Amino acid sequence: MKKFGLGVILAAGMAALTAGSAVAADLSTPVYKAPVVEEAQSPWQIRVRALYVMPEDGGSVNGIWGSDLTYSNAVVPELDITYYFTKNIAAELILGVTPHDINGAGSISGLGQVGKVWLLPPTLTLQYHFTDFGPFKPYLGAGVNYTAFFSQEATNPAFAEVKVKDSWGLALQAGFDWMIDKHWGFNVDVKKIFLQPDFTLQTVGGAYITGTADLNPWIFGTGVTYRF
């Protein structure tokens, strides 16, 4: 009986040691977790911005020595649409309209205001976006602008008509988005457009005067970004 009892105790001890070793082995074995799959972002993005459009003063009327022109600045709303080909390469199209006054300067400063025009300047740029700065997303861009002039009005009694011709121009761009989350962000953007359209003035007597308007505007924008 004593030997039988001792055997039972030894067997129970061995079982306990075996169970303890198994538990220890289970605790030391790393638990496998499936990797988190990040949801791919849409390639589409839009921004709504307020723009400050500041043309450079300059230009001339053909045949009038020392003639010059100045233009009014404008604050307007703007929408842009961006498509990402990759996480770094994107194309942006901006849409908006701006009103401007045209004024005589230099040797024709006595004319005062010559006319008023509205501009539709869609601009398409190819951008490179830097992605290694966390929520700060800077970018650089270059592209082409096509400006259409409409609602043109001669405001000086010496002229019956003012006509500024539609024109192509180059565009350079720099800016950044500060992303609050994966969808919403704050945007700051600067563009320089090289734009020098020709114009024609018709006098009340029927004569025509031609010249060039050196607009070359700076466009400063700030607004809200939304990435779909």
From TrEMBL:
This is OmpW family protein. The lineage of its organism: Bacteria, Pseudomonadati, Pseudomonadota, Alphaproteobacteria, Hyphomicrobiales. It comes from the Bacteria. The keyword Signal applies. The keyword Nucleotide-binding does not apply. GO terms for cellular component: outer membrane. InterPro entries: OMP/PagP_B-barrel (IPR011250), OMPW (IPR005618). Keywords: Signal. GO terms for biological process: transmembrane transport. Residues 1-24 form the signal peptide. Belongs to the OmpW/AlkL family. PANTHER family: OUTER MEMBRANE PROTEIN W, PTHR36920.
